[in-house]
Amino acid sequence: MTEHRGLDVVDFHLHFQLGADPTVRACEHDAGMHPGDGHDRAVRAAGSAPYAEQWRRAWGFGDPEPPMTDRYAEADRWADELRTHRIRRAVFVTGGGNDALADVVDRHPDLMLGLAHHDPFAPGAAAELERAVVERGLRGLKLFAPLLRGGLDDPALDDLWATAQRLRVPVLIHIGHYGSAGGLPAGRYDHPDQLARMARRFPELAVVVPHFGVQHVKELFFAAWGCPNIHVDTSGSNQWVRWMPYRLSLDDLFRRCYETIGPHRIVFGSDSSWFPRGYVTRYLDDQLRICRELGMPDDHLRAIFAGNAERLLGLEES
């Protein structure tokens, strides 16, 4: 069991049955991520395919199980994980569609929250966000920018951003590399410049970028410098640092982020997503250690590991 030493934890970033999510898979196909057997053979021939297995072995993670056929039984399994590891609230950012995820989190409303995750360019996307938030109780919107068919600053999305701003719900936007070996190295529509142009037009919209922006970390920090509504989510193993052309570690990321944008725009996430790995206490432990070694005072730790998420999700009012 992770020892938080009295610190509440609200995890801003988990996935429910991500590998079987039809909404995400459809966007992957539209983005050309699954071109066919030829690409898969090339990935295997290049030795990229075993990378995931090597990574799991290095971190002590077992091979992923197939998603359970009973979604509610899997939700119960997640609830047990959260209670075991003393995670006060957890936000599932994808989960098979808005209604499917809303049904799952409604099973454990004391522990689980969810985000809408539909196609932002689909007709009626803004109305669907309003329905998902107002009628189904979801708490924001999750997008994978590399999978989009238009830019984040495309005027076609203005109604969506305006709706999120009016509803006062956050938008979690993944930028940079997507997927494991053989995935998308980047997308044509996911650069922080586009993110910043959108954020400046909607200054009261809380925008959160996970994984420290992946390879766009420098550009993200500058975008956050210019846009005080841009936040950074710390989720995942952040193994992408190994591919950068200069030395970069999780310690470096936390230090630079803390020194530049401060503690009130950093949001803890684990990116927990599959069993038998379950809740990834290793990521939480490492991040807590780094923050404490940086000498962060207790109120800053409280903000990063719970308070900022509570504010963004409207939990303070409730």
UniProtKB/TrEMBL annotation:
Start and end residues of each Amidohydrolase-related domain: 10-315
Alphabetically ordered keywords of this record: Lyase
UniProt key word Amino-acid biosynthesis: no
Top-level taxon in the UniProt lineage: Bacteria
InterPro entries (UniProt xref): ACMSD, Amidohydro-rel, Metal_Hydrolase
Pfam families: Amidohydro_2
Name of this chain's protein: Amidohydrolase family protein
Organism ancestry: Bacteria, Bacillati, Actinomycetota, Actinomycetes, Micromonosporales
